[in-house]
Amino acid sequence: MPESLKPSVVGAAPAGSRDQQSAARAVRDMFTSIAPRYDLLNHVLSCNVDRMWWRRTARTFRHILGRADSRVLDLCCGTGDMTFALRREAGKSPARILGADFSHAMLQRAAAKSLAAQSVLDWIEADALNLPFPSAHFDLVISAFGFRNLADYDAGLREIIRVLRPGGECGILDFGEPQGPLGSLYRIYFKQVLPRIGTIISGVSGPYAYLPASVERFPSPPQMLERMKAAGFGEASWTPYTFGIAGLYRAKKAE
Fold first, then answer.
1. Whole domain around residue 77: which residue ranges?
2. In this structure, what CATH number is given to the domain that contains residue 156?
3. Of 20, 28, 179, 207, which has fewest CB within 10 angstroms of its CB?
C-alpha cells in the first residue's frame, strides 16, 4: 500500500478483535496454536533467510554484546532464535541476555532449545506493554518479528525507552513491503502462497492469513521512525534487508 494511503494505526488488530485487550488475547492464542511448528515454518517460509537476518542484526550490536556488564532484552522473543543469535555474537562475554514473551507455549520451546544447546540464557513470561523491569535497566532491547504484533505500537516504544538506560539502544527487526517488480512478485507469494503453506504445515487456519495483513497494517518506515522519535528516541534509522522484505529499525535513547 502506498505510504500516503496507509492509515495511522494504534497496533495489531487480528480478525474479530474489538479492542486492545481482545487483540492481545487473539495474538497470544494464535502463537500458542502454531508453537509446535513455529521454527520449521519460519525456516521453510523464508527459505532460511531468517537465520541471516538474525545474525546480521546481532552483529549490528556487537559493541554492546561484547561488554561484560551489558544487560540485553530480546522482547517478544518467541522460541528464542534472535536470543540465541545475540548469545552467539556475544561469544565469551558474560553479558546477561534475557528473552521475554507473553506466550507460555513459545517460552517452553525456547527453554527446551536452550537446555539442549547448553546455552546460558534467561527466559521470562511478560507483557511487552507492561514489563516487570525497573526503569533504565537494559543497555539493549531487541525485538525480532514480534513488535508488529503489539496491540499498541506507541505504548510499546514508550515501554522500551523506559527500561533502557540513557545511551541504550533499541533494534526492531520486522517485515517490510518491497517496492517495484520484486515487490509485486513478493506480495503474490506473501498473500497467496505463504498462507496456504503455513496452514498446511501447521494444521491451523488463521495465523498465516493474519501475517500478511499485519505487515500491510504496520507503519511504513518513515512513519515508524517518526513514532520512535515521538516516543523519545534521539536517533532513529531504518536499514532494509533483502530488498526491503525485512528491515532493522535502530534507535538510541538520549544520554
1. 14-34+47-177+217-253
2. 3.40.50.150
3. 179
Average pLDDT, the chain: 90
User: Does pLDDT of 191 surpass 90?
Assistant: no
Dihedral sign of CA atoms 221, 223, 225, 231 in order: negative
Q: 57-71, 113-127, 225-239: which has the minimum mean pLDDT?
A: 113-127
Residue 82: all three cell numbers together = 534472535
User: Residues, the chain, total?
Assistant: 255
Q: Is 106 inside a domain boundary?
A: yes
Residue 243 lies in a domain: yes
Strand-pair partners of 174? 247
- Secondary structure of the chain: what % helix, strand, coil (to 5)? 50, 20, 25
pTM to 2 decimals? 0.91
Task: Say if 19 falls within a structural domain.
Answer: yes
Q: What are phi and psi of 55, to 5 degrees?
A: -60, -45
pLDDT computed for residue 107 by the predictor: 96
pLDDT in the model for residue 39: 82
CB 16, CB 192: distance < 8 Å: no
Contact 173, 246 (CB under 8 A): yes
The total of structural domains in the chain comes to: 1
Residue 176, pLDDT > 70, answer yes
The answer to the question of residue 24 being in a domain is yes
